[in-house]
Amino acid sequence: MEYEVTLTAHRGWRAKYPENTMLGFREALKLDIDSIEMDVHMTKDYQIVVCHDASLERTTDKKGNICELTLEQVRQADAGIRFGEEFKGEKIPTFEEFLELMATRPDIRLLLELKDYPEELGDFAYASAEKTISLCKKYGVFGKERLTVITFSTGICAWLRTRYTKDDFYIHGFYPKSIMKGYESDDPYKYYDEVCLFNFGDKDPQGFPIKHDSIVADIERYKEFELMGIKPCVYYGMNTDEEVYRKSFENGARGFTCDHPDICGKILDKIGARKLKK
Asked: Is the pTM of this model over 0.85?
């Protein structure tokens, strides 16, 4: 279904299942969602795998940076055991495994976060981005109706826009721009089709003070991005406070990425955000 706002399951169904695992993705697809968000890195032997962190420590029983490990080494890690004993044995998926699943659900949009950054890894990150996008094309998860690419890297934004158009996919970045790598030398906003608004820091790069009485950004920021033709979006982690979602929607948020997509979907229904588009 297509709603006035979109509901995205974050890293699969992160609140209930190990993040970025095939189990979490399969379970999330059973919910009434519009899209799935997930993260990728490239291994030492140039294979794309699904994991949020650059290293294995937080989410698995192994250690090491993914870019310094082979696919075989990454696949030896248990990606479920830290979440709960009952999830022991879950592996870090390859991106192709995930795309095979997504190919069965053409109704679901992919929010694909590229986690290798040229500001840190140089050309390796550009190669990672290109390999990832080529796999999306191979499995038919491509085109502006199906794919949004997320990044914290201004360099990746620029790279993608020299090689692909908005008909191929949308680009999703972040506010304030100071959390975008490389923002000092290139303005990331000119590449955005969507933006996730966070409300932290002392002031944004334009000099606007950021108020800390709420995790919801000021209504003016939503309006400005809307006027720029950039879709305002939000992510609040495990938060399920109805008032936070209500205020965000009233301010102008039109994309909600959630760790509790089941609960947040009900909240969005309750506040009237998920009315069907005509």
From this structure: yes
